[in-house]
Amino acid sequence: MRAVSRPAAILLAVSILACAHAPGPPGPAARVLAPAADPTAYFPLAVGNEWTWVDHSPRSGAGEPGHRTVRIVSRDADGFYVDTERGALRWSRGCIQDRSRSLLCAPFEAGRSWTSVVSETSTERYQIAATGLTTTVLAGTFEGCLLVRARNRAGAGVEILLETTYAPGVGPVRIETFALIGDRKVPQVRADLASYRMERPGT
Predict the structure, then answer these.
(1) Which residues contact 168 (CB under 8 A, 6 or more apart)?
(2) N or C: which end of the chain has fewer CB atoms below 10 A?
(3) What is the number of domains present in the chain?
(4) CA–CA distance, 62 with 187 (Å, rounded to integer)
(5) pTM for this structure?
(6) What are the C-alpha distances in Å from 131 to residues 110, 112, 165, 187?
(7) Alpha-carbon gap, residue 30 to 40, rounded angstroms
(8) CATH number of the domain where residue 157 is located
């Protein structure tokens, strides 16, 4: 279950460290983009794109929340955009993919679902749970967001639930994981976008 609870491929960086001052947009103005069939409309991929996350996880304690900056640094021969956390993403067949799963797939309609077989014993089940959301984080207020839920069995009677909110033109703005134990939903990780920088798409 490490792959679902700590998905480095979606630039999550939930083991929060350093760098609280990545560049971001001026002020919390709402941003909206019309729905599109191209998943990079909700997760832009370009060398130089950068996201800074702040950790609000229950395990982070009462101290100052930690920050971590993740930046796309190169594009490899297979078309994957590689980041500073050694994550790799590309757009193929209507989906944003890492090297072993599809993370976000068009069309962007509530109820849309797909699966990713990660290994012989691990299958992740994804669904677009909601569209047209407005989400407010430190980086601003974003309209037209998508909420994607992913589930994977972690053991007897336990599932891991990953909830990712994608903002158009920005990418993931909130990422949360929960342990589902019987009828309990136990928070594990929460990372909110603090700031970001977007370069020209396709570079």
Answers:
(1) 31, 32, 33, 34, 35, 41, 42, 142, 144, 145
(2) C
(3) 1
(4) 16
(5) 0.79
(6) 6, 11, 10, 23
(7) 19
(8) 2.40.360
